[in-house]
User: What shape does this take?
Amino acid sequence: MYSSEDFERLFIRYKGEAYRQGESVQTFCRRNNVPYNLLG
Assistant: This one.
């Protein structure tokens, strides 16, 4: 089970790594084996 802290860390990681490079949230989730519907 995921906690809200897990999602917060993942979103911060997305903003730091993938967003700058223009990667979509869906692609980031797929690459990190996280269900998109949990983050998106």
Notes: The helical segments are 4-17, 25-31, 36-39. The chain is about 60% helix and 0% strand. The mean pLDDT is 87. Residues 4-17 form the longest helix (14 residues).
